[in-house]
Amino acid sequence: MKGLKKSFLRLAYTLLKGYWFLFRPQTTGVRCLLIKGDEILLIKHSYGSDYWTVPGGGVKTNESLSEAAKRETLEEVGIEVQNTNKLGPIFYDGEYKRDTIWVFQTNIETSEFNIDELEIINAKWFPVDKLPENSSKLLKKYLTLYHPKPF
Question: pLDDT at residue 149 above 60?
């Protein structure tokens, strides 16, 4: 059953990209950098690209940016975030839409996480200064908002 749901997610994502291509919508999303000491928690989604990135997603109607970052973190990696620091926006048009991605950061006390196996296929802690080679091109931009030195 999980395999069928994952296939549906991939199909839905492909259809969504077709919609974005045709209509070029303006969207708002969030990403949350989960930092524990000198490590960051990265994830791989079950749909879309095969790159490592950070938890995040779209903002629901009447939801604040901070609430969206907290919700996405809880949904994707099972970590309940109390406080977030808004780092700033990243503008991205790589998926046929005009996306404003608000980046948040929070410090985590524990290394434990519990992924949503439908949406997330892998999650792992990485040293912030030794990111995996197959990281999202946006990940370095997110991290630049957190720590202005080059990564």
Answer: no
Dihedral (CA of 13, 78, 51, 122) sign: negative
Which helix H or strand E contains 125, and what residues bound it? Answer: strand 120-127
pLDDT tens string 14-42: 887 777 677 788 999 999 999 999 999 99
In-domain check, residue 151: no
Residue 43 CA neighbour count, 13 Å, CB half: 28
Asked if residue 37 is part of any domain, the answer here is: yes
Query: What is the pTM (predicted TM-score) of this model?
Result: 0.88
Q: Can you give the residue range of the structural domain that contains 33?
A: 2-146
User: How many domains would you assign to the chain?
Assistant: 1
CATH code of the domain in which 100 resides: 3.90.79.10
